[in-house]
Amino acid sequence: MKWTANKAVYGFLGVLVTFACAPFANYSVLTETSPTSIPVSQGADDATLGQTPTLASAVTLTATSTPTVRPTITPPPSELFAFIQAPDGPLAQPYVTLIAFQSIPDALIEIKGIINSKEFICRGSPCALPVFTSSTVVFQAVSSSGYTSEEISATVRVELDSDGYYVFLDTVSQFAAFSDSCLRFWKIQDYSNPEWAEFVQFPYLLNTDKTLHHLATQLIIHGLVDVDGCPAGGLNVGLDWPTGCGLERATRKMIEWQNQYDEYIWLASSEIGIPPKILKTLIEVESQFWPGNERFYLDEFGLGQVNQLGVDVLLRRDPTLYQKVCSTVLDDCEIPYSLMPAQNQALIRGALVSSQSSLCPTCPHGLDLNLAKQSISFVARVLQANCETVKIIVDAHQSEELEDDPEDPYSDFWKFTLLSYHSGISCFEKAVIATTKSNVPLEWENLSQNLDCRGGEGYVDGVWGNLLRFDTYQYTPADQEIAHVEPVFAATQTPFPTPVPSAAQLIVRVFLDDNQNNIAEESEWMNSVPVLLQAENGMELTGSTVNGQIVFELAEFPIGSDVIVSLPGLYRSETIEVPEQGLIPVVFVFAQPTLPTAIP
User: Of the given ranges (5-19, 247-261, 268-282), which has the lowest mean pLDDT?
Assistant: First the structure.
């Protein structure tokens, strides 16, 4: 495929703003157990405010302190989602997990449904729904604010092995379609379907288990982890790194904390069209999932550590968002953002950035986690604005005479976007110009050699390395680690009943009635006939007849349960109900076909 410059879009560059890269401190964010340093971005642009733009007619940003105005922007209507998950086995008792969440987490949620004609309700999420045999489950989530999710139906299979129960989802009715919005805007084709661009169908498939030292430190400092008995309170002398004892104590909470945003990452990815693994990896590198404002002098906020220059790109690409924010701080918003006076632009930028701050003195541990979760869609939109700006810059400078195409333009464009998010669009544009002048393909390997912004190459390579290793850190919590609520059934039933063993015996007799007198005679008993017992809880017993009969002890079957007695291959079966005690006879009679007495 040949890249061609789209000259028609060049006129739009007149309202774009670009910035030169300025030196900044090289922060270290440890995203794994090894002390690998990755330069942390300043949220989209690390350029100096007031730097002369490189493109004609661009509006210059002026150095202005962040306004303290925090606008109240009306959020979109809340949406409610429900999912079903089969736990990894083996299990002592078989169940499926029902999960529900709301895009604006401000209401109580219940899950209502039917399993095998029995109604149930879960007053919370996640809910452990018992399934003692292969079942059909139909359910939906309902919130106290009046919202309902789509109705989900699933077929569940239960198998019993020597070490316990195994549960499988054979079918699930829901399916979430996804399209990478940046890929569409770039107008390039991708046939490789890389794993890093995959849209997982369920949020829990984004769960990870990563050792994040900054996150562990914050959890300890804010009292979310019990480090009683750890020397120095579980932290080093500088209080910026966990000791071995502190890290060990923080591990469980650290895993829980990094996965609490996955539902909202999944939702933002679905709505905005950003691959969810890219979004989660970006947040990990920027903040290690701690939504505090760690670099105050750069005015960077939230999970994505976005600053004023980062939202400037977004405001220029999203006029709807501009109108929402502008109306909260200015009386006159008829002028487009790009044509506003610099001081008004600064007021709007500052108001938008500060609205994403999760700091809350009156909230537990000083953080509004609900706001942090909702802000993930904002981070995704900033990333999307950068990917669109990247395409415009490439089209403006890409040479039409270049013969060689990039080998992997999909990966290259995402790396360009990460560079723009971190180091600014001016840094990216200068590198594009230098690379195209060298008459080499515009791909990351070549462009990274022409960067004059400190830390940009290391940032992109670090994020990309984490992204490629994403699946190696996928995490499935152990059964005992999940705090489930239990369903309440409309019929009298307990979620996990303790089976009462039966003292009964089942005797199966099989004979061939040669003389058709309906009496089993000594010569008519059928030997070595396989017999199978199948219970509704998945339990099975097998054996073969000896002298025409076989006896089964029913101690392993719950009293009152149904058991199918069958002769595999002979197409005979009968269902019994297990009693407390006694002897249950089941007789299978076979007869020879009646032969004609004379030839017709």
Answer: 5-19
